[in-house]
Amino acid sequence: MMYSHFLFILFSVTIWPAIDGIIAPLTENSQSSSSWIHPFDTSNYGRLQLSNGLALTPQMGSALSLPWHVFTWNSWNFFACNINETVIKETADALISTGLADLGYRYVNIDDCWSSILRNSKIEGEAHGVFTCQVRPGSLFHEEDDAESFASWGVDYLKYDNCFNLGIKPENRYPPMRDALNSTGRAIFYSICEWGVDDPALWADKVGNSWRTTDDITDTWESMTAIADINDKWASYAGPGGWNDPDMLEVGNGGMDFSEYRSHFSIWALMKDEIHSPDMNLIKNLVRLQDGIHQIGIENLNP
C-alpha cells in the first residue's frame, strides 16, 4: 500500500516487537570505562551527543539501546525506486529464513519512492520544491505532522535527505525534525543525510544520531576505498549517540568480487555503517567478521 498523506526519505520497521517510548538520556555514568573501550582518538566525541538514548552503538550496531546486536538492511542500493509491498515482505522473510535475523539483522529500512506522488488534498498548496530526492512530497515545513505519522506507524528510523532544500542551510534545516521526532514520545533514530557537504561531524552531534560524511557510494572498489579514506578524517567525532555515516554497503550487488566485498564489509564494520545487500547468504558468511569489532565502537582505519 502506498501512503498519500506524508513522506519522509527512509523509514525502518523491525521484524520483531518494537520498543516504544523515549529511552532515558545518556549520563556520564552510562559510559563507564569498564564497558566502553576507546583504543583510538575520541577527542571530538560529543559529550552526550543527541541524548535521546539511541545509537549507543551504530547502525551496523544497535539503533536502540539494546544488549544484543541489531543491524539494518536498506532497499536503495539494489532496488532504488523499484520497490513494492512484495519486495519488502520477501526481504523481511529472507532475513529470517537465512538466519540473519538471529544474528541481529532485524531492521528493514525502506528508502525513497515508497509513497504516492502527491500528499492528500488537505495539504494542497504546500510550497513548490519541497520534495524528496525522487520528487515525492517531502517533510520540509511539515515536520510535526510527519513525525506524528511516523510515530503512529511504529517507525524506528528516519533517514532525512537534503534534496530540494529551498536554500536552507543544513544546520537550520535539520533541527526542526529532530524536535518533532522527540516530541512524539517514540524513540526514532534520526539519520542526517546531506552528503558531508557542510561537514556535519562538526555540528550534527546535537542534532542527529548519524550524519553522512560522503557522497553516494557506487558498487566499485574505487568508490568504496575513496569513501573509506574520506570518512576516516572524521573518525574522532563519532561515538555513542552519534556516528559518521559513509553510506550503505554494496555487498552482493555484483560490482566487486568476493574478496573485495569481504574487505568492504570489514572496513564498514570498523567504520560502523548500515548494511545493504540483496545476497543474504553472502552477508551471513561475512557477518561474523565484524562481530568482535562491534562492541569496541572504534572508527579509525589507521590504528
UniProtKB/TrEMBL annotation:
Signal among keywords: yes
InterPro entries: Aldolase_TIM, GH, Glyco_hydro_27, Glyco_hydro_27/36_CS
Entry-linked CDD domains: GH27
Annotated Gene3D superfamilies: Aldolase class I
Catalytic activity: Hydrolysis of terminal, non-reducing alpha-D-galactose residues in alpha-D-galactosides, including galactose oligosaccharides, galactomannans and galactolipids
The UniProt record lists the keyword Signal: yes
Record EC number: 3.2.1.22
SUPFAM superfamilies: (Trans)glycosidases
Keywords attached to this entry: Disulfide bond, Glycosidase, Hydrolase, Signal
Signal peptide: 1-21
Pfam families: Melibiase_2
PANTHER family: ALPHA-GALACTOSIDASE MEL1, ALPHA-GALACTOSIDASE/ALPHA-N-ACETYLGALACTOSAMINIDASE
Family membership noted in the UniProt record: Belongs to the glycosyl hydrolase 27 family.
Protein name listed in UniProt: Alpha-galactosidase
